[in-house]
Amino acid sequence: MSRPSRAAIHRIGSRSLELTTVEVADPGPGTVLVRMGASGVCGSDRHVLDGDWTLPSPTVMGHEGAGTVEAIGDGVIDVQVGDHVILSWFYPCRRCTACLSGKSYVCTGSRSEECLLPDGSTPLTLGGDPVFPYLTVGSMSEYAVVPEAGAIRIPKEVPFDVASLIGCSVATGFGAVVNDAGVEAGTSAVVVGTGGVGLSIILALRLVGAHPIIAVDLSEDKLAAAKDFGATHMLVPSANLAEEVRDLTGGGAAYAFEAIGRVQTIESLPSLIAAGGKAVIVGLPPEDSPVSIDALALAESGKSLIGSNYGSTVPGRDFPRLAELYLAGRLPVDRLISDRIGLDEVNEAFDAMRRGERARSVIVF
Ligand code: APR
Ligand code: ZN
């Protein structure tokens, strides 16, 4: 059995998505069928459209989604029909050494990056041919089949648009600040790039009490949003950026976050922090983009440069706590949503993103 599902698919070489109807199979053992409530339009989807990363093709795009469990496969015990879930774009295998050590964010058994279910199959077809769910989510589709470990139950009071963003940008930003950097109250931070991910970093910095919080972006609109989210200083990048940050922080920020995915901004990150500071790469650059760092200067000043993938999120731990922080009014995720759109408007959302417009577009089903 299968069901038709309106979906936005990407074919290698195309910069836009094709709206079509795919077939979604019934959930097999260990997997669940989710009726999508909302899907965010994220910078990582754009990387794929712009040819920055290679993937199996064709692909149902979208990896930032939330919805309702419609059916469960044999042996599923974590969720039940009717539960509201946030989808994780890196499902843990739960068996490898990393998973068993509580570090499921570096799981070696997951097939998420191959866009495959744990048994190596894809639940999607188009005209009988296989189609792949991006990062084994494929949330730009009315239905998805995902592994049980990639569907995390959350309270029903959390609206789907908010829940979808918790699944990627908010978890990534919060995790970079809390799980990876470990920012302490009263310490300074600079955030370079204040799109959906950068604004999520600012929300988390405000929550943990960082001060000052310096936002850097090319777009005046994005900087206005950053101010609204809790940034105390807003800067447009220039040749004097490091000097401006030093002046505002008394010698350099304790923490710096890159949330664009650009080689040059990653290379400039260590210049924004003080000796002993921590620079965190959150934005993901195109494949094969080596960066050049002055290793002697880094070592002599005791600075760290670390990578943060998905904020080292443990979905089963972090999604529910982010949902609770939202419900308690401590993490106003809803303010990230600049545009609620239909699936058919997805290409316009990517065009707006390429122009540096909109904080976050969310597709509502
Ligand atoms: N200097 C400063 N800001 C810049 C620059 C630059 N040279 N170039 C782009 N920006 C800003 C844009 O104006 C925009 O506000 O970076 C921001 C990027 O935001 P989005 O396009 O909304 O992307 P987002 O979804 O936030 O993702 C950012 O994180 O997870 C990764 O793959 C994702 O690499 C992507 C990054
Ligand atoms: Zn994302």
TrEMBL record:
A GO molecular-function descriptor? S-(hydroxymethyl)glutathione dehydrogenase [NAD(P)+] activity
SUPFAM superfamilies referenced in this protein's UniProt entry, alphabetically = GroES-like, NAD(P)-binding Rossmann-fold domains
Organism listed in the record:
Arthrobacter cheniae
InterPro entries, per this entry? ADH-like_C, ADH-like_N, ADH_Zn_CS, ER, GroES-like_sf, NAD(P)-bd_dom_sf
> Per the UniProt entry, what are the Gene Ontology biological process annotations, in alphabetical order?
formaldehyde catabolic process
Q: Which cofactor does it need?
A: Zn(2+)
Q: What is this protein called?
A: Alcohol dehydrogenase
- Similarity field: Belongs to the zinc-containing alcohol dehydrogenase family.
Q: Which GO terms describe its cellular component?
A: cytosol
Q: Which PANTHER family match?
A: ALCOHOL DEHYDROGENASE, ALCOHOL DEHYDROGENASE CLASS-3
Recite the UniProt keywords alphabetically.
Metal-binding, NAD, Oxidoreductase, Zinc
Domain spans labelled Enoyl reductase (ER): 13-363
